[in-house]
Amino acid sequence: MNEAQWLPGTSPVGMLQSLRGKISDRKLRLFACACCRRVWDLLPDDANRNLVVAVENYPEAPSWPKSYDGLQEWARKYPELDDAMRASSAGEREWGAWDGNGSYWAVKYLGRGFYKLSPLESANTVSLKIALEVRPRSEKNAEFAAQADLLRDIVGNPYRSEPIDSAWLQWHDGLVGKLARSIYDDRAFDRLPILGDALEKAGCSDADILHHCRKPGKHVRGCWVVDLLLGKT
Question: What are the residue boundaries of the structural domains of the chain, listed by start?
Answer without folding.
Answer: 3-155, 166-230
